[in-house]
UniProtKB/TrEMBL annotation, chains A, B:
Keyword annotations from UniProtKB, A to Z: Membrane, Transmembrane, Transmembrane helix
Organism from which the protein derives: Apteryx owenii
InterPro entries: Ion_trans_dom, Volt_channel_dom_sf
Protein name (record): Ion transport domain-containing protein
Listed Pfam families: Ion_trans
């Protein structure tokens, strides 16, 4: 419910025509992208305070950070009040989201005041309110995706709890068996400690075994004692690691799909209702039925989607007003939201600027030959070979001067390639919005060029080799090699899928950020300063035991993990990342429990449950679903309608041609046809359309756009009639 | 094609009526369960030779093992010839399965002869033909499931290869970057070795990082040097561990589903065709249409499914001959295979034997009270509490005499519980086929009783505490606690799903066996005897380095992994299992590469790719699919038809009643009704039916049964007409 605030809002904004224009203005202001960007800026500013507060990565005085925090809280309060102004009172107060934000603001202020006061009297207390900061990220209206992910987790909760209890029961049972079987054998671990004598330690060890982190080690003493005891651990691993962990994934994935379906259904219903409302506001009588006039429809589309081209709008009109009657009936009107949601790429066939300015030279035989060469398949292959040779050169020793000269040769070759391509293909098309790889190539090459020149200049002038710049040069040099992937069709398909899912992966980035933030703050309070990192040649006492005698002879110190500590926010993040990867997490848990108290292990277990069992599984579910959608290439009804119309108008491109990356070639030849003897099917108006590849994932931000679009359509249709 | 041999077969056996009865007899013999069991016995005998051959767990002379092998190969040849007899020549020779088996037999014999001859002249050679042994397991007609799994893997292959190449490309690129970034920094690992200086070693280290096995360790030197280098590893882990590994799962899962659908479609088509053929053999004219007479139909069902009850058969007849016309039309006849495939449980409402023999005592007030008590929910709760107290007692120290007395008390309590239950509920129903938990309880309790008595007797007579028996007693004691799971409804549902998927998991057991067998044989040839295990107090030279000076200061020796070696078949299996669990596999790889040659690591990488990337992912896919099927409770059309008929006949049980586990109670009360005042809806004939829980997974052995059933229906319908 909470996530659908803007529809509530727009219902008031438009259903009630007696509304004042000032509230109309307030509403635009609230949704203005600059205001939204500013809100996000303050949210991230507030979150980033953890970097500057004690224990700080870059220390700032308490006064500075607290002033910034008060400023942020003030901004949040103003934003919330603004939202209250444009929302009916009862809806505003029913929304838990708003209550949450209010409570969080109050808590933060109180905590800040208490902490500040105590600080004056030199009493050290805990800044506990820092863990509520992610609430602002979650609960402001724009973070729908993260909220949706959290709701999905909440829905999964009951089911996963039962499986988890059963799983824990199994772990406890096996621990009991292990205690009885191995407890009185006087066995020793590889470190010479008693083996499996304490029930709670066995439970912990076997829990760790589920994550496979202590896999053969935990079994070795029993296995050394007798063959047959290996069977105990094999059974345990099969039941708990393989079966139960898969069941967790199954439960999470199943709930994720179910939840997704429900959300989509709700949104589709909401969309239809809003579109009908919009239609009712704009409708005029035409014969027996109500319709929307073409002029009004065009004005509406212009307002709702200002960034689409005129020709695209004409195309949509052609589809909506199929029989060219000059008006749009209800059924077609309602479909508008879907139509707008489909990415139609307008490809303008332009002449090459050089062909316009210097037609003689550009169309000369030599130029034609050159362009033909660049368009040839062999050109791509030649450069693939060059990339491979380059890879060998990169791997070779850097010291030899010949190799550093070779680097210049390669850079020059790549630059020549880009120039040739721009010469051959139309530059604006070459750098079109959807030409990801062209952009990627050009950026990498020019960044490498800049960095290499900078590095050489620095070296020759100051005799000083900047390590940072050199590192960047190295990375850029290697990144250039990625291009070879692009020349193999099957790889390109997989890469495109991966690139397509990046936006939604950012949602998981947000989710991870929230979880990490909370655990990092708690971790810093618990373990701050307990473990210190000293450089390798340090003479500090206990440098080898991470500055803490309690770690003497521990796995933690022996593996040299001292830099993995909770001494500041950045370190904590890296530790949490290592815990997410799971391996060796028991070494961390034991290490930190040794320097504090044994129950500190619970912190690590809790993190494992939240992050690995729930969030990583949701991430995997998401990737699974994304790939399944990608594999099932079904076009929606609306897309088919658009495509049909594109074909009817003779402005389409065959999919096959596109797939062979002959798009640019095709356009070129079309141009040739126009210039020369006149082709067989010259596209009208020098325009072609194509539907953007496969259907976007319906849960991607694109889908969300549809919902927002709908509410703005309604608002704007009302505005068309009343405000203007 | 290969898997559908029996339909081919039956087509000849039945389509061609001119066939001789002797071939009919041969066919029955071929499919006789004892012959099939014998074949399996020889397959496993042949496989198990690896345990007795050098390097042996239990050594047998070469002559003995080779004689057994020749015997097995002889049996396989006879079986194959038998199959050739009952199969048309062209079909037999087209089937790659048969060719495979023949080639395997020839190869094994040749190898055995060569090895034996060389052995006489004391030349040591390799018994390479041992790796073809699993071919017999895969390629004999009965292992359809394993073959299907292998086919599924083969189909996944092209797709997964592309993803794998892209993934390897990414690993190689990152390795190149790592070489450039860290190679010349003179960093050292925790063991003091040079860090990231050799390209191939970097590739291996980063491949290991994908499996997370060396997770923080590989990053620590760079991280200690500078914060920012952690970003390199974080990016690497996100791209390669999280994204690519999920993509592998997605590809495998997607192909698994696609393949499954195709197989099902093929089988369904085959089934229909066979049923129509059977109908054509049995049909008689009745008015305008062809039909099968009721008598013939009954005879057929009796022959095809001899194990179903008369009442069940009547039920099927009611469904097939809906209007009681005395014959079955084509449509209903074709459905027979589906009908037979659905498990209908016939529940007979019987009087308690004591109620028949001693009605006075059994129906007395005291007895009624007792039975009422047992049936009460409180009875279950009481025993749940007893189990919990028992758990505490098990965890407590064994030495105290009071606690060992308590053990007797608990045993007595559990036995009383079972006796009371048998007294209250009808014994044959209590120990019914589907009463898994009742069987489980009773077996565990009586095994524990036997073992405890045996242990006590041994202790009091010989003063000797047998460790094996004590271990078994401990395990049984803990297993008793599982019962508590059964009293919570939600847990029971999850447990039942898990129990349901056990049969299909056995297929994966077979698959794993094949892969392990091949790798174990290769591993033994490569690493046999290179690493030795010595007991903790051994004085042997290099006991701490596993008997090999090359392992001095290695992680392998320090972690005391010496018992993880390839010195015999059983050890190899355990090592492979540890490699499947993945953790620390790089320690194994490095250890075994140190004692042989560096390229030996390829063996471990190959195993990781085959076992973890492919087979474990198929296993996960299978569990995901099984749970999804379990969650989507849709009944098939045929099941609905059966249920309708059961309800019509007034012999159904409400699902809800069943779900509350009131089944037994319900039946009891029905009995009461019959005895007493006459219930509201007494079931006719004292019979009730229910459809066995949810639909079985359509890829489970049950489904396969359907296919076999079909071919036998056809054969038998032909037999009905011609043989008899």
């Amino acid at each position: 419910m909470g996530s659908l605030a803007s529809p509530h809002l727009s219902r008031r904004g438009c259903g009630n025509v007696a509304l004042l224009p000032s509230s109309c203005w307030l509403y635009y202001l609230y949704n203005h992208w600059m205001i939204q960007a500013a809100t996000y800026f303050f949210i991230f500013l507030n979150l980033s305070l953890a970097v500057f507060e004690e224990p700080a990565v870059y220390p700032l005085p308490f006064l500075a950070t607290s002033l910034i925090e008060v400023l942020c809280l003030l901004v949040f309060s103003v934003r919330l009040m603004h939202f209250a102004k444009v929302t009916p009172r009862n809806i505003f107060w029913k929304d838990t989201k708003n209550i949450c934000v209010m409570v969080a603001i109050l808590m933060s202020l109180t905590d800040l005041a208490v902490y500040g006061t105590l600080r004056i009297y030199n009493v050290r207390s805990i800044r506990w309110s820092r863990i509520v900061r992610p609430i602002f990220l979650i609960n402001f209206a724009e973070s729908r995706q993260i909220r949706r992910a959290f709701r999905s987790i909440r829905n999964t909760f009951p089911e996963i709890t039962y499986v988890f209890l059963l799983f824990m029961f199994s772990v406890l049972m096996f621990s009991l068996m292990a205690l009885k079987l191995f407890g009185e054998r006087n066995l020793q671990t590889a470190e010479g400690l008693p083996y499996f004598t304490n029930y709670l330690e066995i439970v912990f060890d076997l829990y760790v075994l589920v994550t496979t982190a202590n896999s053969p080690d935990v079994m070795m003493p029993a296995f050394d004692f007798s063959w047959w005891y290996a069977l105990f651990f094999i059974t345990y691993v099969i039941i708990n690691t393989y079966i139960f962990m898969s069941v967790f994934l199954a439960v999470v994935y199943n709930n994720y799909r179910k939840h997704l379906k429900n959300e989509i259904r709700k949104l589709a219903y909401m969309k239809r209702r809003k579109m009908v409302e919009a239609f009712n506001l704009l409708k005029e009588e035409e014969g027996a039925e109500f319709v929307v006039r073409e002029a009004q429809w065009k004005q509406l589309v212009k307002l709702v989607a200002p960034d689409i081209s005129n020709s695209h709008r004409e195309l949509l009109l052609h589809i909506s007003d199929d029989e060219q009657k000059g008006f749009i009936d209800k059924k077609s009107f309602v479909r508008l939201a879907d139509l707008l949601n489909i990415q139609v790429i307008t490809l303008k066939i332009r002449r090459h600027p050089l062909g316009q300015w210097l037609p003689h030279i550009y169309n000369s035989a030599a130029s034609q030959f050159l362009r033909g060469m660049v368009r040839h398949r062999g050109f791509v292959w030649t450069y693939d070979v060059i990339i491979l040779i380059n890879a060998v050169f990169i791997a070779l020793d850097e010291e030899s001067p010949y190799i550093s000269y070779a680097e210049w040769v390669f850079l020059a070759l790549y630059i020549i390639e880009i120039l040739l391509k721009v010469y051959t293909y139309e530059p604006r098309t070459f750098f079109g919005k959807n030409q990801f790889w062209n952009w990627f190539d050009t950026l990498i090459i020019f960044a490498a060029l800049t960095a290499t020149i900078l590095n050489t200049t620095l070296k020759s002038t100051t005799e000083y080799n900047s390590q940072q710049i050199l590192d960047i040069v190295f990375i850029l040099r290697v990144l250039r090699l990625i291009r070879i992937v692009d020349s193999i069709q099957r790889f390109r398909v997989i890469m495109n899928t991966l690139i397509n899912i990046v936006p939604t992966m950012l949602t998981f980035g947000g989710l991870t950020l929230v979880v990490y933030y909370v655990f990092a703050i708690i971790g810093m309070e618990l373990f701050q300063g307990k473990i210190q990192f000293f450089p390798a040649n340090s003479n500090a006492p206990h440098a080898l035991e991470c500055g803490n005698p309690a770690l003497k002879d521990s796995m933690f110190a022996r593996a040299k993990y001292c830099k993995n500590n909770f001494n500041n926010f950045a370190s904590s993040f890296i530790v949490l990342l290592e815990l997410t990867v799971v391996n060796q997490w028991h070494v961390f848990a034991n290490g930190f429990a040794n320097v504090t108290v044994q129950p500190a292990k619970l912190y690590f277990i809790a993190f494992h449950i939240v992050m690995v069992i729930i969030i990583v599984n949701i991430f995997v579910s998401f990737i699974l679903e994304a790939f399944f959608v990608e594999y099932s290439v079904e076009k929606s009804e609306v897309e088919t309608a658009i495509e049909q119309k594109i074909q009817e108008l003779g402005m389409g491109i065959q999919e096959e041609e596109l797939q062979d990356e002959k798009l640019l070639d095709n356009m070129e030849s079309a141009e040739h046809d126009l210039e020369g003897e006149g082709g067989t099917k010259p596209p009208a108006k020098g325009l072609v359309f194509k539907i953007a590849s496969k259907p976007m994932f319906f849960y991607s931000p694109t889908y969300m756009l549809r919902c927002r679009l709908v509410s703005s359509i309604e608002t704007l249709s009302w505005w068309l009639r009343s405000c203007c």
